[in-house]
Amino acid sequence: MKITINNQKIAVKEGQTILEVARQNKIDIPTLCYHSDLTIQASCRLCLVEIEGRPGLYTSCSTKVEDGLVVKTESENIARARKINLELLFAQHREECADCIYHGRCQALKICRQLKGKINGFTDRKKDKPTFKFGPALEFDSSKCIDCRLCVDMCHRQGIDFLELEYHDGLYEVVPSKDPKKDCIYCGQCLMHCPVGAFEGVGEYEAIEKPLQEEGKTVVFQFAPSIRTTIGEEFGMPYGSVVTGHLFAGIHALGAKAFDTSIAADVTTVEEAKELVERLEKKEPLPMFTSCCPGWVKFCEFYYPEFIPNLTTVRSPHMIMGGLIKTYWAQKEGLDPKNIIVVSIMPCLAKKYDITREELWLDKGALKPVDYVLTTREFAQLLRKRKINLKEVKPEEPVAPFPLPTGAGVIYGASGGVMESALRTAYEKITGKTLPQLEFKNVRGLQGVKKAVVDIAGRKLKVAVVNGTINARKILAELKIDPHAYDYIEVMACLGGCIGGGGQPVPVNEEIRQQRAASLYQVDEKSVIRCAHNSPFVKNLYQEYFNNQDNIKKICHTTFKKKNKEVNR
Ligand code: SF4
Ligand code: SF4
Ligand code: SF4
Ligand code: FES
Predict the structure, then answer these.
(1) For residue 292, which atom of ligand 3 is closest to its CA?
(2) Is residue 568 part of a domain?
């Protein structure tokens, strides 16, 4: 089939939309409610085009190609209609541009400038709309919502259905569910797919200003594995830019200490591989699930508590790192843990919830391993406020006793990374031999479910890697039929794992997630040490601090319990 767009003849495939064809051919059509991850909503009506021989205007995101179609993407009529539609959208959206997650990158404002439209062309209709808080993790301000329904679709695609539509004053509006059987898991995927910033993480960065200036306080920032390939976007760098050294420099410029959470990911790997080997020997409880994703943990505890015994008891890397900072490092530095403030820079909104879980606190609740969680976006905001441009700082190195992590600790940021790291270590633990090939390529990639059989000394280990909680539902349904279908399962709540986490820069799509993940694997490839158990830091830690089993238990392990609904309205 062939169609013509703006006098250009283009070969097309059946089932494609005009918008898809236009984008593939670099023809610009403005869109707001279209997202390549989601169902077409066709609600913003900005992507209008004309079709020769047909009256009226058509939404290009929802109109399929037909052989011989002649399409125009620009005309006076189109511009007028787009402008009115955009101004009507602005009448629904209460602007708070300075604090918006799209600040400097707002698609709506960009289109408005192109069309010479007005933000206040029509009176705002949504002055007194409610704000909802979803636990300690995120907030939804319905006065900013333009009713595109992408968030509802996203939450549904996560298999959660916590966001619903309710009829008010002639419109269906987004609300959190009152159903006691539905709860938010704080994955933040709704936020990542909202085109106008109606969702935001619960802000913590202002609270950090005080300890940063307080005499006698030591502020330590740690950054998650994925941050090194995502935060550059906040400073105009290309997708997938690796900025590890810039992060150290940026944190030091704030007057704080900087540690790489990937160092503790190596500890998580060693403990998790140990637990896997023990469970395989005892043959229970299997399969073992990873538990470093708090979105997935909340999902399991709320929706599938019967699988709680399958979660590994090993803590997530930032909690282990926080624990080490306030005990091991504090002792080395002669610091009182009470005067240390640990801030985790995370890709994640669920980690804001994670740090409120009392079962993760130390010394019977007296000591919190992590005091604050900042998302990648929030940390970038803090740096900008202090006029620190990550793109311009001179990269710096980590300092002792927390040196560079192994490649295994870095790939935690992509779906399959935790599994691959643990397999590298488990293989050598079981066989006592060096792995002939370090890469487990069949657990890599952005597909929702990846399955593999891994041969370890003749034992066939059945593994699955899942991203997106709807895919977790599929695997759990399989396990209900055949409890022995798998031995080890990695689950990450967010699309693509943490590189697509709810705290990462916006916008995001498959291509962007791909570039972020690819860069993490490149860091691994270039790393001198690529197995967690070979890390000199890890070896030293086990010799001088983890030679005491109580320390391992206290810093590295936790418990889980069934959860009731936490987010009400
Ligand atoms: S954070 Fe996740 S579970 Fe909660 S409303 Fe958003 S998409 Fe749904
Ligand atoms: S909150 Fe955002 S994604 Fe959800 S309906 Fe409103 S504008 Fe669309
Ligand atoms: S996948 Fe990563 S970013 Fe998303 S909820 Fe889990 S830990 Fe957080
Ligand atoms: S992008 Fe097509 S109607 Fe919104």
Answers:
(1) 7
(2) no
